[in-house]
Amino acid sequence: VSASAPDARASLVRSKIGVPIAQAEPVQYQALYPYHPVNDDELELREGDLVEVFEKCDDGWYVGTSLRTGLFGTFPGNYVHIV
Predict the structure, then answer these.
(1) Which part of the chain is the SH3 domain (predicted)?
(2) Residues of the chain with pLDDT > 90: what percent?
């Protein structure tokens, strides 16, 4: 089961925005602003949320998991800053 998780992430990113830029280790970011998802594959952010970012895509969107909700999805990279 755990072996299929990275493939699911890469598939999600490719289906939304093209080729992913993978990182070796997840990096923790903090939300600067709230973000309300428009599509099902997007991640809701509240100001101050911590997110583990797994991929930064070339169009400025990030892929990660919210530490508050445990949910996984895409969100705009300019809504967060590295911790």
Answers:
(1) 24-83
(2) 70
